[in-house]
Structures are given as structure tokens and as C-alpha cells.
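Subject: Interface between my chains keeps coming out wrong

I've been trying for a while to get a sensible model of this assembly. When I model each chain on its own everything looks fine, but I need the whole thing in one frame so I can look at the contacts. Pasting all components below, labels as-is. Any help appreciated, I'm running out of ideas.
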Amino acid sequence: MNDSSAYQPPRVWTWDKENGGNWASTNRPTAGATHPAELPRGNHPLQLYSMATPNGQKVTIMLEELLALGETEAEYDAHLIRIGDGDQFSTGFVAANPNSKIPALIDYSGDTPIRVFESGAILLYLADQFGQLLPQSRSERTEVLNWLFWLQGAAPYLGGGFGHFYNYAPEPLEYPINRFAMEVKRQLDLLDQQLAQHRFIAGEAYSIADIAIWPWFGGLVRGALYNAAEFLDVDAYKHVQRWAEEIALRPAVQRGRIVNRTWGAPAEQLHERHQADDFKGLSVPQPR
Amino acid sequence: MNDSSAYQPPRVWTWDKENGGNWASTNRPTAGATHPAELPRGNHPLQLYSMATPNGQKVTIMLEELLALGETEAEYDAHLIRIGDGDQFSTGFVAANPNSKIPALIDYSGDTPIRVFESGAILLYLADQFGQLLPQSRSERTEVLNWLFWLQGAAPYLGGGFGHFYNYAPEPLEYPINRFAMEVKRQLDLLDQQLAQHRFIAGEAYSIADIAIWPWFGGLVRGALYNAAEFLDVDAYKHVQRWAEEIALRPAVQRGRIVNRTWGAPAEQLHERHQADDFKGLSVPQPR
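Reply #2:
Try treating it as a single job with all components included. I did that and got this:
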């Protein structure tokens, strides 16, 4: 450890706005709306408000998979929420998700609109709504949900822990980087052992467990997150690599991961998605 | 910031066993079993392997609530897993939960045993199994699950983030403490705004959302976690306080929170629970 032991926390914590690293402008110690603005609404029953972070990708991949399976009722409008600009703090967004995090879904298909927030909750909602990508039998369904919930508790260590301290914090701090690197490597080893025994995360069938975990851990081992592939020696996790590549080849995954994306190659950005034709001209497999 | 900028991460991360603070002995960069040992098994269909951490309390509170509702099939054996001793790394435990975290449940009620891990998955499994504490209507069920998933993603910031750096790390580091204190205060403010409008987390009915959130945030505002009540000014969150006190008065909560508990007053410790009579002589309301 270096000489940082001089710090002693105050009796009562107070907010110093300067001390947040990247994303400091979007982090606050209070919840709720900061400005009035309505959410846009398209023609489909499913209205998604999101951005193509790993949590955002989960839902657009799920919706593209459902459409690829022939579920025409899964047609959706995906509106862009620019989290760097604070769109998630509008009155409209906060009504959809008081936690001010993307993604948020509003389902207008029934008598009254239903708000769904937290990416894991949205995957479960859609899987149950369409009877897809989540097995019916009690034991198989339970194993998928075990891993879905696992991801929701694991991702904060990967993103808010490791990713933040390794990539976004104003300066590298040894103890937090070690703490979170160790945990992320444990998570990778866990997935590697599971995927040594099974083709997919929860068994032999592709499911919402894969859709939840791939944008995070698939992105990590494919070098797409935090510039950390060498630091974490991701090549050592052969089974995770095999699984990540197989999923990356799925047409619905290739489409879903670029919806609400505002970075990377222009041919891999679809800022908003309102109909299948919106993918025309982009470098992804076109919907049938 | 203090002068800690001298640190530069290595090209490839390696494990330094000395650098972990409290709980260092239970944290590793690899997954899987370290020693052979079978799990004990009692007489009931539901076998729980746990400890009375906040995540452990969720499930024992749930089971006591189900029994209080007259669900006699919710009778259970709660076996103690001493995580400080590494019980979670036995072959038996890893078969129940490859992630080596408490709680883990095995349900022997059907033709084949079903393993359930992740505390949120266990709450959902039991709620669906018994048709209790999770509303039937699509919109009400969805709102409960929104908040259940919210907790699973929020608790790592409270426990693995704030709690670790404020209470367990070998020395206090200013930047991580500020980062996680700000997030926990945002979470508290979010809950406070929600509970200003509703008696319980997801509406007017007590649900698995309350059972998930109370051990963490109820514990925090009641001063039971991390010695952080003054630092976080928890008295400012009046609605969270009101809710936390109401739930703390529930007999099933008072019983559930002491199951698999190995600290505190002896009259508030029930190391293992195998039948209702096991609460006799302890300072909690006795089951009917």
C-alpha cells in the first residue's frame, strides 16, 4: 500500500461535487427528477428507453431474439436516453424508473401501461410474456433464474467496481483495483467452470441467463470493456471465450447490441430503432 | 485527494494474498471447491444452508412469514454455513451453489432435488411455489419484481462497496468512501421518496420486495450495519425509518433475523433451526 493512510472520514459525510472522476456529472447523493420532460412514444406496445451499455444491450438483444423467433408482438420502439446528458433525470424517465438508470420499458399492450425497470426484471418480464428463452419445467426455469440473479449481483463488481477503478477513476488506486480484479477473475473462473460442462450458462439451451451475462462477461473477454483484456488475462478462460464467440455470431445479438449505440463505427450505430427496416445499410444481418 | 498517484497497475494482474483486509481469507481469484464435505440434511423438504448476514436473513424471514401464513409445507431446516471458516468452499456446498455464497436452498419436495441460489432467486422461487407475498396481477407483480431486482443490483454498492471501504478495508481511502457513500445516500433518498408515497416498497401490500430490502437498508437506518448511521445521517430518511420500524415489529421478521446468527446477544442467536420449537427460550415472539 502507498501512503494514503492520512485520510480520516469526517463525522458526517458531505458532498464534494468535484470528486467523481468520469461520470461525476451523472452521480448525485439524491434521487428524483431534475427537469420536466415527457418521454417520446412510438407506435408499438413496447416502448424502450435505453442506451447501448451492457445493461441496455441485454434488452435490445432479447427483443431482437423474440422477433427472430417470430414473436411479432415484440415489435418495439427504442428511444435513446443519453445518460451523459442527464436524460435519465427527466420527469418522464423518473416516472418510468425512479432509480434513473437505463434501460426502462413501458408496456402499453394491456388496459393500463406497465412500467418495468432493472434489466433483469425486463428480461424476466419479456420471457414470461412470450413464453420464450426461459424453460417451462420447474427445475430448468429455476437454474436459469439462479444465473440471471447471479449476474445482477455480479455486474456491479465488474462495472461499478473493477471498471470504475481501473478505467474511470481520476487516478489508479492499488487496493480497490486489487480487490475488484480478484473478484472479477473469480467470476470469470466460475463461468469458465460452468461453461466447461454446458454449452450455455444454464444448460444446453440458450436462455435469458446468456442474454444477461453476455454483454458484460462476453464483452470483457472479447476485449470490448475497460481495456482490461491483458490485465485480467482473459485468454485463460477458454470456455468463456468459446461461448462468447458463439453468441456473438447470432444475428439477433449483432442487431441488438448496436441499438441505441452512439459510439464506435458509424455502421454499428443505430441511435433509435422503430421498425425492422431501420437496420438497412448497417453492418449487421438484416431481419427477415 | 491525497498522494496516492504513485501507483501504476502492472501489465497483468497477479494475486497478493496479503492484500485483502478483513475477509481476505474468504476471497480468492478462483472458483470451485477446496475440500470434500457433504452437506447435512434434515427431515423437511426445504433445506437451507446459510448464515444471518443480510442476504441470509432475507430467506429465513421469508420462510418464517410463510409459516406464519399457515403454509405448513414451508417447514425447513436451516443449517449454519460459517463463511469465515470457508464452509462455502466444500464440495457439497459448491454443488448447491457453484458461486460459494450463502444462502443456498435445496428443495426435495419434487421428483428430483432443485437447487436454488442467489437470495433474490430464492425469494422469487418460494413466492411462486406458495403463491404468497407476490401479487397475482401482472402490473402489481411486475412492480414487486422491479424492486426485488433493484435490491440485487443495489446491495453490492452498499455491502461490497460502502461497507467494505468504510468498515472492513485495512485503511480508510477517501475516494472510494466518497464514491460509495454518495451512491448509498442516493439509494436511501430513492427509497425515502418511494416510501413517502406508499406504505411498503412496491405499494400498499407487504411483499418479497420488502423482505429483500429490509435486511440491508432497514439494517442500515436502524444502525445495525457498518457503524455508519451518523456518517450517512440516516435519521434524515424519515419514511425509510418509519417503514423499517414497522417491519422490525413483525414476529416472523424477529424470528427470521436470528436464524443462523452467531453474534450478538445469546438470546438472539439460533445457530440452526430444524423445528418451530427451536425458538423456545429465545427473546423473540414464539411461533403459533
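Reply #3:
Confirming on my end. The first strand of chain B starts at residue 46 and ends at 50.
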